């Protein structure tokens, strides 16, 4: 499969902040599978922070964001790997707004229209040193070239609160919303890559096992072959004999490198958004405790900001996700 695409999300469960979906695109030598990419890049890419440290200061970890980030422990590991990867693509964001522009440019007009995002900017990286990024990026580029692997793109889509509520109503559930948002992003990516065969690996969406209907909506000109649907993996194929496209929706899909980098991009944008939201309300409510946006604490946070929210004339759908 000459092109590998991995997708993952951040922010599926919370009531506050955006849902972010990301896709990464890789071109590989014939015979290299998504499961063999880590092996091919051994010595260049680590799967844990401990391994990255052991390999040396210019090695980066690319792994599921849950492995690299825990609330309250800083964004350094996410930043080092993600910003190094963006550097391979020639993107060198120096501010938070530039990170959004590098990963999700279509989000910029929406960010500017929402008070807590519009006010938020500042330098990046936040929790690692800027002079770490360039050597890491150079080492990553060298390792990729040596392994005959090319990082082609990293692209994200953020679905903010009001749009999230609208799309949940439109699609009937947030699981369906996630599928449609992911497939829309993949369709955009597929239109921009060459005519070689493609393997797309996605994490399962809300525990669902059936995706043929959603694939048909986003690729209406194609006959979708169902190759198998199970709790572990659902597989679909379509396209001409010269350009076959295979989708795999897998449990723990982020264990594969393309989906792992997508997980990191999604989580980083999500954390930038939550920093913006927390800082906006903290400036107006002394002593307000920050929130990660997950249901129990999100309800506490909403109660704490209710009076100021009403005074600012901010309606609930602008800040509160219904599902």
Write the layout of secondary structure elements.
Layout: E1 3-10, E2 19-28, H1 37-40, E3 45-46, H2 49-55, E4 60-61, H3 65-68, H4 76-88, H5 96-103, H6 108-113, H7 115-118, H8 130-146, E5 149-159, H9 161-171, H10 174-190, E6 198-203, H11 212-218, E7 225-229, E8 233-240, E9 243-250, H12 257-282, H13 295-312
Parallel strand pairs: 1-6, 3-4, 6-9
Antiparallel strand pairs: 1-2, 2-5, 7-8, 8-9
Helix pairs in contact: 4-8, 4-12, 9-10
Task: List low-pLDDT spans.
Answer: none
Main-sheet strand order equals 5-2-1-6-9-8-7
Give the % helix. Answer: 40-55%
Distance between the termini: 37 Å
- Determine the strand fraction and express it as a percent band: 15-25%
Provide the residue-averaged pLDDT: 93
**C-alpha Rg, in Å?**
20 Å
Name the shape in a single word: globular
Major beta sheet summary: 7 strands, mixed
Please tally the helical runs, counting DSSP H or I stretches of 4 or more residues. Answer: 13
Please give the number of β-strands: 9
The helix/strand class is alpha/beta
Strand/helix succession: EEHEHEHHHHHHEHHEHEEEHH
Give a verbal description of the structure.
- The protein has 323 residues and is of the alpha/beta class.
- It contains 13 helices and nine strands.
- The strands form two sheets. A seven-stranded mixed sheet has the order 5-2-1-6-9-8-7, with helices on both faces. A two-stranded parallel sheet has the order 3-4.
- Helix 4 packs across helix 12.
- The mean pLDDT is 93.
């Amino acid at each position: 499969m000459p092109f590998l695409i991995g997708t993952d999300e951040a922010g599926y469960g919370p009531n506050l902040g955006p849902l972010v979906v990301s896709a990464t695109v890789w071109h590989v030598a014939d015979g290299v599978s998504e499961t063999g990419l880590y092996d091919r890049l051994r010595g260049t890419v680590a799967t844990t922070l401990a391994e990255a440290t052991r390999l040396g200061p210019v090695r980066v970890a690319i792994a599921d964001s849950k492995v690299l980030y825990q609330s309250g422990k800083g964004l350094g590991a996410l930043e080092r790997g993600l910003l190094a990867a963006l550097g391979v693509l020639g993107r060198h964001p120096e501010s938070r707004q530039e990170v959004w522009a590098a990963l999700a440019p279509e989000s910029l007009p929406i960010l500017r229209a929402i008070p807590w995002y519009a006010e938020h900017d500042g330098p990046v990286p936040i929790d690692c040193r800027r002079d770490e990024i360039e050597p890491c990026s150079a080492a990553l580029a060298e390792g990729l070239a040596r392994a005959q692997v090319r990082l082609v793109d990293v692209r994200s889509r953020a679905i903010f609160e009001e749009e999230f509520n609208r799309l949940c109503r439109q699609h009937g559930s947030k699981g369906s919303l996630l599928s449609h948002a992911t497939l829309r992003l993949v369709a955009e990516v597929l239109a921009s890559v060459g005519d070689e065969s493609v393997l797309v690996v996605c994490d399962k969406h809300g525990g669902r096992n059936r995706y043929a209907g959603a694939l048909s909506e986003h690729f209406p000109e194609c006959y979708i072959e169902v190759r198998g649907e199970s709790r572990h993996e659902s597989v679909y194929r379509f396209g001409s004999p010269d350009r076959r496209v295979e989708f795999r929706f897998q449990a723990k899909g982020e264990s594969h490198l393309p989906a792992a980098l997508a997980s990191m991009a999604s989580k980083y944008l999500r954390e930038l958004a939550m920093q913006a939201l927390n800082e906006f309300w903290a400036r107006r409510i002394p002593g307000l405790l920050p929130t990660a946006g997950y249901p129990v604490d999100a309800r506490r946070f909403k109660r704490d900001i209710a009076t100021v929210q009403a005074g600012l004339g901010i309606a609930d759908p602008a800040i509160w996700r219904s599902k």
